[in-house]
Specification:
- The protein has a single domain, classed as Endonuclease I-creI, CATH 3.10.28.
- It contains 6 helices and 4 strands; from the N terminus they run αββαββαααα.
- The longest helix has 23 residues.
Length: 177
């Protein structure tokens, strides 16, 4: 279990990519603080790439942290309802998120667009010239995440309905010429 992250075989990275696709989220987190200086106020924005996986299986989360050998934070969320099981979250931030993204990107299917955006993130480059790039990547990620969330909400029935409406529309266009 003490393997380096680069030495894991492709099958294991593919498996972990599937877990991230199904149980995880990929984003760029933004936080900001308002500062005042010489009668002027400005907002400082900080950005951080994040990949996180949340589930109720503590053993799997701990195993994933050990097997990847990438530094991640593990935390527990307990719920007030005694029937609900605690949720365990493993999150990777900054360069660690980029390292994980690089390893799982070739195998990802669902979160591939988000991982590709994450790979463009300028890690370790805190120059002012990169501020606009980080801000643009944040908004690009937000748009992709909103689109994928909307697509997940479409039920199979809705898709059938939309397809039949599309077919009806195409048929009417053909008839009306």
């Amino acid at each position: 279990m003490g393997q380096r992250s680069g030495s894991l075989d492709g099958n294991l990275w593919a498996y972990l990519a599937g877990i991230v696709d199904g149980e995880g989220y990929v984003t760029i987190k933004r936080s900001g603080t308002l500062h005042e200086y010489k009668d002027k106020s400005y907002c400082y924005k900080a950005y951080s790439p994040v990949i996180a996986i949340a589930m109720t299986d503590q053993k799997f989360i701990v195993w994933m942290k050990e097997i990847t050998n990438i530094k991640g934070q593990l935390w527990v969320r307990k719920f007030p309802n005694p029937r609900w099981r605690p949720s365990y979250t493993l999150s990777f931030h900054g360069a660690n998120a980029i390292q994980l993204a690089k390893n799982i990107l070739p195998y990802s299917r669902i979160k591939k667009p988000q991982l590709e955006i994450l790979m463009k993130y300028p890690i370790g480059d805190h120059r002012r010239s990169q501020r606009l790039k980080r801000d643009n990547l944040y908004w690009e990620m937000r748009e992709v995440n909103l689109q994928s969330r909307h697509q997940q909400r479409l039920s199979e029935e809705t898709l059938k309905h939309l397809n039949s409406r599309k077919q009806q529309s195409e048929l009417l266009q053909m008839i009306n010429g």
